[in-house]
């Protein structure tokens, strides 16, 4: 029985290159943000003229979001595997819960914009431009992402950085950078339009370190 259990554990062991999921998440999110920023105005009260010209580009960005979500879930698994027996229930609950909430709100925002594009595709885009339906969907997406999702991303970075300091699963300087970038999300997200890129940058940084460290071992 013990031998069978050890063999099962060996087969389920996390691959050394699993941290590449965090790198994949970062690259996908950079691509998504770039596509959205070049296609959709930052103003949440804009009229929606992009529906007539850039709907396909936005749809491409939305189709990449599920893949980024899967990569992010894999990245969370890599972190928990690296923690092992050192995992603290309190901080593990906070960083795991905030990560899931961030993903959930990211998917909700993508679904709302996807519904708008679907409606625009089934009718004349000009009919939806400046309509109350579009304005509500656009404002709801903006609030979900810029008020709630981005704050959950900051909580994820703070809790994970705290875990890094207490367990030593990564260098302390990575945790300090995590705190500083999380502060940018908490305080400056309303004023800094590129603040969404903060989470992918930090995930990329810690994923590269974990990947190199795993391959060295």
Can you walk me through this structure?
The chain is an all-alpha fold and 217 residues long. The protein has one domain (20-216). It has helices spanning 2-11, 20-39, 55-83, 89-122, 125-128, 132-167, 172-188, 198-216. Helix 2 (20-39) packs antiparallel against helix 3 and helix 3 (55-83) runs antiparallel to helix 4. The longest helix has 36 residues, at 132-167. The two termini are 29 Å apart.
Provide a brief overview of the structure.
The protein is mainly alpha-helical and 217 residues long. The chain has eight helices and no strands.
Can you tag this structure with a few keywords?
217 residues; mainly alpha; 0% strand
Structural category is: mainly alpha
Low-confidence stretches: 1-12
SS field, number of helical segments = 8
The N- and C-terminal alpha carbons lie at a distance of 29 Å
Average pLDDT: 81
Total individual domains: 1
* Helix content class: over 70%
What composes the largest sheet? Answer: none
How many β-strands, per DSSP?
Answer: 0
Please give the radius of gyration in angstroms.
20 Å
What general outline do the C-alpha atoms trace? elongated
Strand content: under 5%
């Amino acid at each position: 029985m013990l031998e069978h259990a050890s063999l099962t554990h060996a087969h389920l062991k996390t691959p050394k290159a699993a941290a590449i999921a965090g790198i994949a998440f970062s690259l996908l999110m950079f691509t998504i943000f770039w596509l959205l920023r070049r296609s959709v105005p930052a103003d949440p009260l804009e009229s929606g003229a992009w529906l007539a010209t850039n709907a396909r580009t936005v749809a491409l960005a939305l189709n990449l979001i599920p893949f980024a979500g899967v990569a992010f879930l894999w990245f969370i698994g890599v972190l928990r595997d690296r923690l092992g027996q050192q995992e603290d229930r309190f901080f593990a609950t906070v960083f795991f819960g905030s990560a899931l909430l961030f993903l959930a709100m990211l998917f909700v925002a993508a679904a709302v914009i996807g519904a708008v594009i679907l409606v625009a595709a089934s009718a004349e885009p000009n009919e939806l431009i400046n309509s109350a339906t579009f304005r509500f969907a656009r404002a709801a997406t903006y609030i979900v992402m810029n008020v709630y999702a981005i704050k959950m991303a900051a909580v994820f970075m703070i809790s994970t950085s705290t875990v890094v300091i207490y367990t030593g699963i990564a260098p302390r300087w990575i945790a300090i950078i995590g705190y500083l970038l999380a502060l940018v999300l908490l305080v400056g997200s309303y004023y800094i339009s590129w603040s969404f890129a903060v989470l992918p940058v930090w995930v990329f940084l810690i994923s590269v370190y974990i990947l190199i460290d795993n391959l060295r071992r």
